[in-house]
Amino acid sequence: MAFIRCSSWEGVRLRSKRELKLGYWLATEQHGPTRLMELATHAVIAGFDVLVLSDHFHPWRDKGGQAPHPWIVLTAIAERFKGVEVGTAVTTPLFRYHPAIVAQAFATLDHMYPNRIFITVGTGHAMNEVPLGFEWPGYKEKVGRLREAIEIMKLLWEGDFVDYEGTYYKLRTAKLYTKPRGRVRVYVATADAGVARIAGALTDGILTNP
After folding, report:
1. Which residues contact 90 (CB under 8 A, 6 or more apart)?
2. Is residue 94 part of a domain?
3. Is residue 9 over pLDDT 70?
4. Distance in angstroms (rounded) separating the CA atoms of residues 48 and 39
5. What gap in Å lies between CA 147 and CA 194, rounded to an integer?
6. CA 201, CA 114: separation in Å to the nearest integer?
7. What SS3 state is found at 43?
8. N or C: more exposed end of the chain, with fewer CB within 10 A?
């Protein structure tokens, strides 16, 4: 893997002058925590503005794969590198992650590192959910769960005690006692028109293939 070679000062200078933000992808399904921190260091020195971590329970390949918990690595990166934005792509708040727990985790992250944290959500992959005992549903249920998950996260971040009666999730006077200090940006990963409409109605934008 090749890196742009420049000094730490040059990286900071580049970030401060340009309007277009450049992100660097950190593949947690490929690298362990130590290597991810090394790659993050290279990216920051090279002048990247945003560091993005994938979110897997299982890697794509059995041999040579990795799967550290990205939120823990994300915290270490945010603490070490003060000037960059950090987030996930793609977190699936449908099965192994209950949306209220996702909201709690990212509220805590933003409380610690305000206005530097984002989350990209999506309908996910069976390989990360089925091994944990979940049945993999069809399109309608996955999209319905995603909409409800986004609604729940936003309600918990912005509200007080929350009651929610959805098709798939329910909250009973749930409250996040540690709120974000800034604003957690939410993006949706999709190439689907229906999911893109949800993103347009509820979130800050979409992540899609070129």
Report:
1. 54, 55, 120, 121, 122, 124, 189, 207
2. yes
3. no
4. 11
5. 11
6. 24
7. helix
8. C
Find the angle CA(191)-CA(196)-CA(201) to the nearest 5 degrees. Answer: 165
- Count of structural domains, the chain: 1
> Residue 96 is which amino acid?
R
2 domain-assigned: no
Residue reference for tokens 């915290």: 75
The identity of residue 35, as a single letter, is R
Looking up tokens 């002048």 gives 47
pTM, two decimal places: 0.91
Domain enclosing residue 81, as ranges: 8-207
Grouping H, G, I as helix, E, B as strand and the rest as coil, residue 204 is coil
Tell me how far apart the alpha carbons of residues 164 and 152 are, in angstroms, rounded to a whole number: 7
* Domain contains 3: no
Q: Are the beta carbons of 198 and 146 closer than 8 angstroms?
A: yes
Name the nearest CA neighbour of 107 among 202, 27, 36, 174.
174
Nearest to 171 by CA among 157, 154, 152: 152
The pLDDT tens digits for 158-171 are 999 999 999 999 99
Q: Are 24 and 52 in contact (CB under 8 A)?
A: yes
What's the CA gap between 153 and 156, in Å, rounded?
A: 5
CA distances to 34, 164, 190 from 1, in Å: 16, 47, 27
